Amino acid sequence: MKQGVKTITVRPGRLSRGGRVSVTIKDVAREANVSVATVSRALNGHDNVAEEVRQRVLGVADRLRYSPHHAARSLSSRRTHTIGVVLPDLYGEFFSELMRGIDQVARERGLHLLVSSYHGNPQEQGAALRAMRGRVDGLLVMSPFVGNRELLEQSLSPALPALLINSADAGGHPALNVDSYGGARVMVEHLLEAGHRRIAFIAGPDDNFDARERLRGYCDALAAKLPRKEPWVLPGDFDEASGHRAGQALIAADVRPDAVFAANDMMALGCLFAFSQAGMRVPDDIALAGFDDIPLARYVHPTLTTMRVDIAELGGRALRKLLDGAADAAEAPPELSPQLVVRESSGTVQAGG
């Protein structure tokens, strides 16, 4: 990548091609009461800018929605050789695999990573994003919250290239998502083809984009294939404990399902443990399936049927897309398609059983 950046501006009050008034670097400098050179240094992360001045410039740039030419498409102005990664959490195999893929591409490109977690709190997400300003050349952000667009837009600097991962609304930013809806439909169809008719679903958090898409896929597949069957949905939180609680609830039910489809593997493993504690055999007494294909899924007994998301590839592809920008936009699809992996836990019964 080139180290310099060429900024093309329009005089204040002139319209851009999109019909909006174009804000220039001079406008930012005037509002912040600093020189144009200081604005440039602050936005590009140079060290020779006082932190108080940097924050004032960034605040004005945000308020005016100033965006340097090509800032959203390339990292040609990078100076720190560091990429920021902001995730909902760092715990668990999913995030470990995601970071492995991001780190591999970062090493290939000679870049460093600055990683932050906001523990599922949208307000802390905003604080983490603001803390990255001036320290990184680009951002990878996983923001799965539904209805979080306004807060996210307020926290993302218009001068900093960003790519969103598994987000409900990218708001014009480049994005890369997993096709959770399509994957859930494929899993339900597999369980139906195996002969299971009463299929329960352990859902994820209500405000999570992936969880909603997987629930929608389950419901639509069931409606299409068995229109007289009502969805059987249990609450979950994408962790082992909620899967374990769902499994216990199913064990105590007057009528048990033929199969259980958990919206992620961690809940499926918690459910599997509950069944094992109760002496229920999987898949002989009840079938089980998950989503994600975390490494542990192939080492439990019985091995877990799941929808494979190449999680490391998701992270690596996201960083490559951020770094390469529009150059490969036509070649890189906006969604990663999961693949059905059939193992022991889903079993096979006679059709109509």
List the helices and strands and how they pair.
Blueprint: H1 25-32, H2 36-43, H3 51-64, E1 82-87, H4 93-108, E2 112-117, H5 122-132, E3 138-142, H6 149-155, E4 162-165, E5 175-178, H7 180-193, E6 199-202, H8 209-225, E7 232-234, H9 240-252, E8 259-262, H10 265-277, E9 287-289, E10 306-308, H11 311-324, E11 335-336, E12 339-341
Parallel strand pairs: 1-2, 1-3, 3-4, 4-5, 5-11, 6-7, 6-8, 8-9
Antiparallel strand pairs: 10-12
Question: Could you characterize the architecture of this molecule?
Answer:
The protein has 353 residues and is of the alpha/beta class. Among the domains are: 1-69, 434 Repressor (Amino-terminal Domain); 180-310 and 338-346, Rossmann fold, CATH 3.40.50. It is 38% helix and 13% strand. It is built from eleven helices and twelve strands. It has helices at residues 25-32, 36-43, 51-64, 93-108, 122-132, 149-155, 180-193, 209-225, 240-252, 265-277, 311-324; strands at 82-87, 112-117, 138-142, 162-165, 175-178, 199-202, 232-234, 259-262, 287-289, 306-308, 335-336, 339-341. A six-stranded parallel sheet has the order 2-1-3-4-5-11, with helices on both faces. A four-stranded parallel sheet has the order 7-6-8-9. Helix 9 crosses helix 10. The protein is elongated, with a radius of gyration of 24 Å. It starts with 24 loop residues before the first helix and ends in a 12-residue tail after the last strand. This is LacI family DNA-binding transcriptional regulator. It comes from Luteimonas salinisoli.
